[in-house]
Fold each of these.
Amino acid sequence: MIRAGTAIHSGDAGRSLDALKMSGRYELGETNTSFTFALYPVYLRGGSYLAAKQGAEAAREFQKVLDQFGVVGNEPIGALAHLGLGRAYAIEGDPAKAKAAYQDFFARWKDAEPDVPILKQAKAEYAKLK
């Protein structure tokens, strides 16, 4: 996950996807009950596909996170997957689905400080959707 995150941050989506190949068979696994990294590889894979402008693939990965809410629990990727899904639909040219996903994200972040950078960025992206 660290290699994948570093590669995404460096703009190398391909290297990120390569780093996550081995995680596929374990992505629903849980190693402890107090904090779980389950589905983080899926979330990172979605981010990698976003970086590669592969919206359909990104949407599929973010939807996996949303479909496994019981595994994700209250981890941040549960809310952030809605934002990723909105971005994926925007890449795919489906503004109706993108807006709905962004709205789901905003509903989960309704009590957040308004100057949180990711929230500000999401609002700016949402405003550009037609």
Amino acid sequence: MPGLFVSFEGGEACGKSTQVARLVGKLESQGREVVATREPGSTRAGEAIRNLLLHSESGITLTPEAELLLFGASRAQLVEEVIRPALNAGKIVIADRFSDSTTVYQGIARGLDLKFIRQLEQFVCSDLLPVVTFLLDLDLETMRTRRLRRVRPANTKDRMEELPSPFHEKVREGYLQVARESPTRIKIIDAARPADEVEASVWKEINAILGR
């Protein structure tokens, strides 16, 4: 594909959304065409699934298996409706989460079968993978502090954020495991640093890819 596919991964409150927005702004200031996505979401179907998975009272009792399939459904729609067309048009796609999230959250942290998850991701994404993935690694103490400072609109609790600390510890270790398995693609960045320093690390990698 002529475009460039970049993803950001990490646990809760690691600063993904901030860094996605900063990178998009910097690339667009250079005249590049950029499409930003988030998971679940970024399509009409995906946003409805996002509400069910993260915010709706109806989603509180979802089983891990149902959760896995809903994330897969949202990603399948996103890949075909947004990501592939954008890449085929030569645009840069910046994704706030992609398939690594499923491997870590539903596979490693939830304990679902990783072999099945790999097969599901192959079905959903075919061979589509980001050229580079930025793993914003954050220790749990800093994560808790940031979550306490985070301001959310009323009645918008996040079901995943509110899972207990042992789950989030598994998420962090799961991401580091995935990064060790794919060191060429996944770049670990210390997300406890100031946002400007994280941005500089991201931009250094992107510049190298773009050949500047």
Amino acid sequence: MFRGTFTALVTPFRNGTVDFAALEKLIETQIVAGITGIVAVGTTGESPTLTHDEREEVIRRAVEIANRRCQVLAGTGSYSTRDAIDATKGAEKLHVDGALLVAPYYNKPSQEGLFRHFQAIAQSTSLRLMLYNIPGRCSVDISADTVVRLGEACQNIVSIKEASGSVERVSELRRRSPDEFTILSGDDSLTLPFMSVGAVGVVSVASNLCPSEVCALVRACESGDLKLARKLHRKLFPLFKDLFIEPNPVPVKTALGWWGAISGEVRLPLCEMSEANQARLRKTLEEFQHAK
């Protein structure tokens, strides 16, 4: 069962290549902080710009570094069902704990097409699968009806990362899905409201920077300590917001670069932040650190 705090891990680059030394340090930091799991080569990991060999090696290294101390999910989604199947089967051979499958983007399949797409992937693997619904980026929404249908038809589709921004959607999914089917927030800023109506964790971008605090927020929500959860949410909210003032993962990699964790480098078509937004993010980070 997928629940708790999962970090949508960035992929560190240096001089155009994957920086595996920085990747190891980043994963170790996550584990020390008590993270539940990491997602390697998801969209936050700039998977579309990685070569096949790079994606495979990042997953391999993530599994080796984690060494069962946290769960490792591989981002294997694609707008090509055949490619998604190949990527998922490849990740299974690398002994990941599961796969995260973003909705097909650009080609905008119908709900029947979405169902057949995810069903075909599920039938190709024994891995536990987490759907990823993010209509704002994919221009297609995995409807609640389709999610419920997939959960009933495919025993290994066990979770969803819900980034529709809708508390109502989470409420509906929770009402219509069995308890063992878990819902995780796909937006850091909505972790608290989503968990208040039935989500059981988050797949977080912010936890690349502050894993301890995001883990604490999720634990407070799980334990029903709403006073502490609201306090942590208020502290984290400005950071949650400003990590998306430019396309993800540019701001979070920029911040990690300032802290010396990675180089901050991204690959085209992503590029560095504007000076104005860098100044805004620096101010937010300083205020966050001061609040500690």
Amino acid sequence: MIVVGLVIVALALITISFRSPTAGALHDIQGAGSTALRPFEIAANRVAQPFRDAYDYFRGLANAKDDNKKLRREIAALRAKDIHRAALAAQVPALLRLLHFEQGSRFPSGYSVVNTAVLTPPGGPFAHSLAIDAGSSAGVRLDSPVVDGAGLVGIVSNVFPETASVTLLTDPDSFVAAVDLKTGVRGMVHTGPGGTLILDQVGKQFRVNAGDKLVTAGTHTARYPDLYPYGIPIGTVSSVSATDTATYLQVQVQPFANLGSASAVGVLVTKKPHR
């Protein structure tokens, strides 16, 4: 208790010293008291020092935590930018193929193209549609052919203001009139047994060879216009066979388009006005 009392007196004298003149009896008393209480001031400082150190430690720790959170946010932002750049870089080859197709001789006349990203690719082997990041506000129309630069992907089956749905060639209800560029043989490309693409309705009297290229046949008569213009690449004939009882050749087709993992596609929009 005595030590505590002396410490209090020392603190009181220190307080008075700031408020009193620099000379006089009180100043002399303060000087004598300060000398007598100097050891207690030192002891008080030593007692208080660990608390000051603890305060400084926790304040530094709090600042370090704030700095750590800030660094984490900055790292997360940089990582997000890197991921975004990587995603854009991954689309470059697909966009270059689309540009090559648009500027090539196979691009159908009377059409413009809306190039866009694929939002949701097919979810599995039995999924036959995808969503794209362009809709009616960008000029996308219902029943517009869709390509990926290498070949035909499918057709627009539903349109919203900012997005659209595309039905793939592999959909069981998809049928595309096709022609063999080498032989001129025509048929219908659709899904065959096992989900593979086939060229159907080709009589056994016609000749189709493995390696032949198939493109969309286009419109034959103005009365019955086709949804697909002439010349869009579809795929390559991978095998041809025939049985004695079958009416048509069994022609397997390998599509040019990567239907399972397209990252960017082009929607071919006719320049004809809406009816």
